[in-house]
Amino acid sequence: MQTPPVCNYEGSDYQTSFWEKGGRDYEDGCEAVALKRLLPAAGSRLLELGAGAGRNTSRYSGYAQVTLLDFSRTQLEQAKARLGTGERYRYIAADIYRLPFVKGLFDGATMIRTLHHMAEPALALAQVRRVLEPEATFILEYANKRNLKSILRYLLGRQKWSPYTREAVEYIPLNFDFHPAAIRDWMDGAGFILERALTVSHFRVSFLKKTLPVRLLVAVDALLQPTGGLFQLTPSVFLRARALKTGVKAPQGAFFACPACAAPLDDTPPLIHCPACEKQYPVIDDIYDFRLNPPAEDD
Ligand SMILES: C[S@@+](CC[C@H](N)C(=O)[O-])C[C@H]1O[C@@H](n2cnc3c(N)ncnc32)[C@H](O)[C@@H]1O
């Protein structure tokens, strides 16, 4: 199966340049509030899709174990440096379009600031559903093309594409904004029931961020987030969804499945061998590597 292209973060200093030095305390604060509101109080196994450098991972403290998955090994190395190793965290380099897990493994998943890199979002969401057990919780953040700024720009003739239509807009290669109605259709098609929507980052305007205290902006954003249940005009939307009751729960002890042929795999570091298709997957410095086509820059 040919899978869609992956946006390459190998070697990227995203965490430092975008978050730590990029003046994004306001967005980070708003996301922390939204996650707190949407996450269940407790759970056993959470899958964090597109975990990056683990910016959000410590927010998942209600879960007994967190599996961080990202296509970029160097992002996972940064996450590991931040969170450490041990029973609580597992680090997996893999493609969201080819998740290396057995069906029905996780009782929770999050995907924050990652769907916007998916050229085939419906395909990605179907993969997420496959590895979730019946009635698992899924928290999804997506970039909303129908936001107030894009509506105003469109009305003033400063933007050619319409914020009202359902097709995605690719504003730079492999970076997409999506229409809320399209997201609802894809989630429904993948087998999720939407439970709650929060609108996030109402004040993502540099003038406001420079003039008003971050804590004040976050507090007012927190007050406005529940309006997401009625309408969504912010650049970022958080959803909590529940997997349908259908499907299977993974058998006790099963975890990995071959991303190439789906056969169950034994967890045998430093090398995982697929008995069905003979592919081999290395485990180096506690990071499992299930990428079928790792990026060339990877060392
Ligand atoms: C914008 S970063 C967000 C990181 C983190 N969720 C956060 O909010 O700080 C997007 C991440 O998604 C990962 N990613 C993009 N496409 C992917 C794919 N097909 N499979 C796995 N990870 C992917 C990138 O490597 C990157 O680390």
Shape: globular
Give me the number of helical elements.
Answer: 8
Radius of gyration from the alpha-carbon trace, in angstroms: 19 Å
The CATH level-2 architecture is identified as 3-Layer(aba) Sandwich
- Which strand-content bin applies to the residues? 15-25%
Distance between the termini: 26 Å
Report helical residue fraction.
25-40%
Q: If you average the pLDDT, what whole number results?
A: 96
What profile does the largest beta sheet have? 10 strands, mixed
Please give a structural write-up.
The protein has 299 residues and is α/β, with parallel strands linked by helices. It has one domain: Vaccinia Virus protein VP39 (Rossmann fold, 3-Layer(aba) Sandwich), CATH 3.40.50.150. Helices cover 26% and strands 24% of the residues. It is built from 8 helices and 12 strands. The chain has helices spanning 14-20, 25-38, 73-83, 121-130, 148-155, 180-190, 206-211, 214-224; strands at 43-49, 63-70, 89-93, 106-111, 132-143, 169-172, 175-177, 192-200, 236-243, 271-273, 280-284, 287-289. The strands form 2 sheets. The protein has a 10-stranded mixed beta sheet with strand order 8-9-5-4-1-2-3-12-11-10, sandwiched between helices. Helix 2 runs parallel beside helix 8 (214-224) and helix 4 runs parallel beside helix 6 (180-190). The radius of gyration is 19 Å and the shape is globular. It binds S-adenosylmethionine. S-adenosylmethionine binds next to loops.
